[in-house]
Amino acid sequence: MGLFILSFRPDEKIRKYLKGVLDMNYNQIAKDILTNVGGSSNVKGLTHCFTRLRFQLKDSKKANKETIEQLEGVISVVESGGQFQVVLGTKVNNVYDAIVPMISIDETTEISEEKVSIWNRILIAVSAMFTPMVPAIAASGLLKGFLTIAKILAAKQGVDITVNQTYTLIMAGTDALFYFMPVILAYTSAKVFKANEFIAMALGGTMCYPSVVALMTGKDVVSMFGVTITKASYASSVIPIIIGVFILSYIQKFLEKVIPEVLKIILVPGLSLLVMLPATFMVFGPIGIYIGNAITFVYTGMMNLSPAICGAFIGGMWCVFVIFGAHRALLPIGINDVAQFGHQNLLAFAGAANFSQGGAALGVMLKTKNKDLKTVAASAAISASVCGITEPAIYGCNLRLKRPMIYAIICGAIGGAIMGVGGVYGDSFANNGILTFATYAAFGMKPFVYYLIGVGVSFFGAMILTYLFGFDEMGDKKKKANAAAEVETAELEVASELKVNELDPSEADLLIYSPIEGEAVSMTKVNDEVFSSLALGNGIAIIPEKGEVVAPEDCTVTLIYPTLHALGLMLDNGVEMIIHVGIDTVQLEGKHFEKFVEEGSHIKKGTKILAFDIDALKKDGYDTIVPIIVSNTPVFQQVSGISGKGATLEKPVIAIKKNQ
What we know:
660 residues; alpha+beta; Gyrase A, domain 2; 4 domains; eight-stranded antiparallel β-sheet; four-stranded antiparallel β-sheet; 22 helices; 20 strands; globular; transmembrane; protein-N(PI)-phosphohistidine-sugar phosphotransferase activity; kinase activity
């Protein structure tokens, strides 16, 4: 944690950045979030969707939800489906990229102290399998919408562009994702079930193989090893490959246990595929097809019973499902419908919910006098209406204000019912927003008009209800909470600094020895406030007498900055360390420095890592002091530097007391 700091240049521009002069410090947000979820050691897994970081925590009781909700950039925090979800809106990618280098996830570690229900495990698995596909699915829907518009405009001129080769090639790009769904799902499922991704993809590829497709769609009986098998079209299928990869993961684990190490690289994948091919076509593939047909039958039955009720249910409840993460369990229905039948209406009805959330957010923006809330609501309304991303609207204003959420549910249900009555379908699985309107024009103007009416009722109805009937203003609670949090943080930092200075080395749980020979001085004496303020963590500074950096303990070299002036270490005892040679030495771009190990190496105590020319640095006008920072200081009770002359690898310079 904290090793991202190595990438900075400690000049005036970056000092201003670290002081918060710039609007958004994603690294600091990431660090604050990670600290308040219990630190890197409490993170079992981390993924993200369009708007949320989705943590799997070993112990959710260690997470400080209230503090995280007050952090800069955080919209809300949701605990749902076995996940601790931090809602960030459109900046989630930046924060995710910043937080990943700070964590080290041990996939073999089991979640302790809390039991995750089977239902939550299923939701997490479904989310992990389908979420990575969402950008490609959205791109497919957008392109298909453009093709639909082009086809309609061309038809008005008496031109059939569907016979055009360009149209055919682009259409292939929109359909390929769904045709090869078994291959793509094989990869994501293997990630979830911890099977070999490429064996899984080979299994999925077999399902789409032209000769296999021809056999399954032909008139002749198909048999394998003399046994007649059920004929089914597996190209574009969803459930059969998921079941197949699930079974593959257990076959693989069994083979890895019984096959000698020297033969595993060949026999485990070979035997896995040999077992799974007949097992899939004879048993698990047909079972998956039957399950898929059953799900389709139930959903179709609801539609046949009453399209209006089905549309109202999805349109009204979809965003409630989003809150609990349950909507992801429904996504395979729509994906399967597009893959199998070339159309779906699940997301049409969900679109009513999306637009109602956007409309309610717009109503909040028009009604509120709170400038901060007005800004959040305006952004959320655009996000929901244009892109179909509703989390900023749900968590940023509607759910927090309660009544706008109710108005959105009511209007979403009415809009969904209108779409159900009108027989609305889309020809792709596209997230609902203004950009994907054309997707729902593919099956004629009548259903498209019903779609537009449903969207209009959902959006403008929720906006008008929110504006007319209002809500309880939030006031400036969040500002007050932030101010209180800042005061408390400042007090804690002062108290922490005083307590650190009082730590007796004899009472320390860990003693860190000097990686550099020289004189150890307090970090507060470093002539750079980025270090002296302890903003990056506590530690010690060394005035070097020998231009060498060695490993203070057995450790892993996690990062060596390209200019060689700074490096990061993960000590085997759990301490994360930054060693920064000199002040502003990044400007030398590696001059006067030499490295002796590679990034990622695990090295023993005393191993030479870096050499630098002290005299040359001084001659060029650089301060040669070396700050040594414990970058994961927040996870310990106390971190204290031990000043004194004669710092060596045999003399401790940092004392650490662990949390009890």
